[in-house]
Recover the amino acids of this structure.
């Protein structure tokens, strides 16, 4: 009878026991045929086989092991870097919204103030003429041009003069070449931001990319409307520019919104195409793989 030796252990020792697969707690969720018998491995438990320490699924029919792809683990730093990148991404989105708000409200308010000052100067000249007529002084009226449109007028006079002013200078008076030039700049800025939001909102339909783009635009329009509101500066007194703002505020807001829409919507629907074109022009084919998600 053979005696057990270190090189000849008894049959029931643990050395002869077959290696045991370690369950991972997951299962195959796609159709995957067994390479030996063709059995569909869908729903089979994913295990880590002991020999090569790889994850795999074992066929219940023939026992064939089907290796599955596994990416190397980065340990704790993977989670840390993921959080850092997520925070940077959120900061970039907030920064883009702030930049869009600042540029939009800056151009919009500048165009409005330019129109209000010009119209206010005209109103101030009318007020100077009226004052001169009341005092009986002959000759052309000369308002204080140092103040220009910021000259004070009485609310009582403006209430009676408003209709006459509108008859001579209607609400479309601001629509001159300078105003359209500023609106063109606003359209260009809006197109750039529309293309940006279309590109960064990956995995989202382009029609939905307009939502983050409209958020800073809405705040900018509300801000521009608010700062153009006039407050009395004294008993019965207002600035001529405030009177002009009351007349032309709605026209300028609607015009600015139209200029924004003319740039923002094409930018959103053409942004990804432009991004792909820039990638093709700037990078050789072997370096475009990382940007294929565009």
């Amino acid at each position: 009878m053979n005696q057990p030796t270190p090189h000849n252990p008894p049959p029931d020792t643990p050395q002869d026991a077959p290696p045991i697969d370690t369950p991972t707690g997951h299962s195959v969720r796609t159709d995957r045929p067994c390479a030996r018998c063709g059995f569909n491995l869908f729903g089979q438990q994913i295990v880590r086989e002991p020999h090569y320490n790889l994850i795999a699924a074992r066929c219940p029919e023939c026992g064939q092991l089907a290796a599955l792809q596994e990416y190397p683990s980065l340990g704790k730093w993977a989670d840390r870097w993921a959080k850092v990148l997520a925070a940077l991404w959120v900061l970039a989105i907030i920064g883009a919204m702030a930049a869009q708000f600042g540029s939009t409200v800056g151009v919009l308010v500048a165009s409005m103030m330019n129109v209000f000052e010009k119209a206010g100067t005209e109103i101030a000249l009318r007020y100077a003429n009226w004052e001169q007529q009341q005092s009986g002084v002959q000759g052309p009226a000369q308002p204080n041009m140092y103040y220009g449109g910021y000259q004070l007028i009485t609310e009582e006079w403006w209430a009676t003069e408003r209709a006459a002013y509108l008859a001579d200078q209607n609400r479309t008076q601001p629509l001159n070449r300078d105003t359209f030039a500023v609106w063109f700049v606003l359209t260009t800025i809006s197109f750039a931001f529309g293309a940006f939001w279309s590109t960064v909102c990956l995995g989202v339909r382009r029609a939905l990319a307009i939502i983050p783009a409209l958020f800073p635009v809405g705040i900018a329009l509300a801000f521009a409307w608010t700062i153009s509101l006039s407050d009395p500066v004294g008993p019965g007194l207002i600035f001529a520019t405030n009177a002009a703002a009351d007349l032309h505020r709605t026209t300028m807001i609607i015009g600015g919104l139209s200029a924004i829409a003319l740039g923002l919507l094409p930018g959103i629907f053409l942004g990804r195409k432009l991004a792909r074109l820039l990638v093709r022009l700037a990078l050789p084919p072997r370096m475009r793989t990382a940007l294929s998600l565009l």
